[in-house]
Amino acid sequence: MTAQSLYLGIDIGGTNIKTGLVDETGQVTNQNKRKTPQNLPDLKLAIIDIVDQAKAQVGDQLKGVAFSAPGRVVSETGVVHVGGAIPFIDGLNFKTFIQENFGLPAAAINDGKAAAQAELWQGNLTNVENGLVLLLGTGVGGGIVLNGQLHQGSHFQAGELSYMYASSSDMTTENAMGRRGSAVVFVNKSRELLGLAPGDGEEVFQALAEGDSPEVTALFDQYCQDIVYIIHTLQISLDLDRVIFGGGISAQPLLLEGIQNKYNEIRDCVEWFKNSFEPIEIDLCKYGSEANLIGAVYQLLIEM
Prior knowledge:
Blueprint lengths: L5 E7 L3 E8 L4 E8 L4 H19 L3 E8 L2 E3 L4 E3 L12 H9 L3 E5 H12 L8 E6 L3 E7 L2 E3 L25 H4 L2 H11 L8 H9 L3 H25 L3 E5 L6 H17 L1 H6 L4 E4 L6 H13 L1
Parallel strand pairs: 1-4, 4-7, 8-11, 11-12
Antiparallel strand pairs: 1-2, 2-3, 5-6, 8-9, 9-10
Helix pairs in contact: 3-10, 5-7, 7-8
Pfam families: ROK
Protein name: ROK family protein
Family: Belongs to the ROK (NagC/XylR) family.
């Protein structure tokens, strides 16, 4: 009986490196995480240690290594530019690094696009011709699917929705969608209004459900409208079939409900929009913390 082929997914985030072994059906095992080093030499040592541990676990079953990382990641070459929240990885060639150290094939892809690849392969964009993944976190990440395939763009920058502005009259950082659509900013502002210390969104959404704070309700309403602004802009640009949401905040049922309600409200109020464009499906991503690992490995399988 032939041993199962396995691929190591490595998701490099600003806080943690998440890892897992992914098989050819998209199943993930042996998940781990460790703190992300704060300089390039230590990061390289961490990657070598991670791959060594995987090889010790599964031996020759390990057939390749796939990376998900922030920044402009050129999948064709494996080189990351800028590095987003991890600026010191600018210029790192993941493919060359793995080939030189382990002789294994490797792939690299932007983290938002990795999530879209996962949903396209096994998730809620499977069999969708034109769709969008929106990842709501510190900023707004995106992965665009056109004609049944991930659209990375001529410069591998498609879907960088944080840099979209809400209006041409105010093209400042504060008015960029990376801040207006930031789940972290929304939660932090809401906690301040509620008189709470910094923390997660649980108490914020509890307050929203109970209607305890008109100020937080108004802030949430504006937040949902900002997200719908992104959906609306891309719908009329790309004629999308479905938009799905990810990120930690997407686990809150009120988020999907709020966005769907705001989208329907705008359609009902803007007659030309309602009459000219088919309603879009709005749902959640299938995958949570595993998405980037699965999507990165899918990118590797496509290239192989």
